[in-house]
């Protein structure tokens, strides 16, 4: 009297539902991938904004150094100080306008990236 015991893995509920679980996992991952790509596009855009702000802050620091140097060089001459100040103010204004132009284009670039991911 030898009785064969059935293989427990052959009749387990997990084995019976494996195909549906595999299908569901594939569908779930396909749904998560666009969200991940959108998040990546957002992070890239944020990185570009931070780089632009760093460039602008660097330009401000450079102009501050130049105005300090101008003050040290032309300490007693208000006309020379005014000339230095006007020149640096013009450069900072140009940098700021360039910054605003880049910020305006980033919004459009970000929307384009999102639409590409959708």
Question: What can you tell me about this protein's structure?
Answer:
This protein has a domain at 37-117. Helices cover 86% and strands 0% of the residues. The protein has 118 residues and is mainly α. It has helices at 13-73, 78-117. The longest helix is centred in the middle third of the chain and has 61 residues, at 13-73. The radius of gyration is 32 Å and the shape is rod-shaped. The relative contact order is 0.10.
What would the keywords be for this entry?
rod-shaped, mainly alpha, 118 residues
Task: Give a short overview.
This protein has two helices and no strands. The chain has helices at 13-73, 78-117.
Summarize the biggest pleated sheet.
Answer: none
Overall form: rod-shaped
Low-confidence stretches: none
The helical percent reads over 70%
Domain Phasin: 29-112
Organism: Billgrantia montanilacus
InterPro entries: Phasin
Protein name: Phasin domain-containing protein
């Amino acid at each position: 009297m030898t009785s064969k015991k059935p293989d427990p893995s052959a009749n387990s509920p997990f084995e019976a539902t494996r195909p549906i679980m595999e299908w569901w996992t594939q569908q779930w991952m396909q749904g998560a991938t666009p969200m991940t790509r959108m998040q990546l596009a957002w992070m890239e855009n944020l990185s570009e904004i931070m780089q632009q702000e760093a460039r602008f802050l660097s330009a401000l620091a450079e102009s501050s150094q130049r105005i300090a140097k101008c003050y040290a060089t032309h300490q007693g001459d208000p006309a020379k100080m005014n000339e230095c100040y006007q020149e640096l103010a013009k450069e900072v204004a140009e940098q700021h306008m360039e910054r605003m132009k880049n910020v305006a284009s980033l919004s459009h670039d970000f929307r384009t990236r999102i639409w590409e991911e959708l």
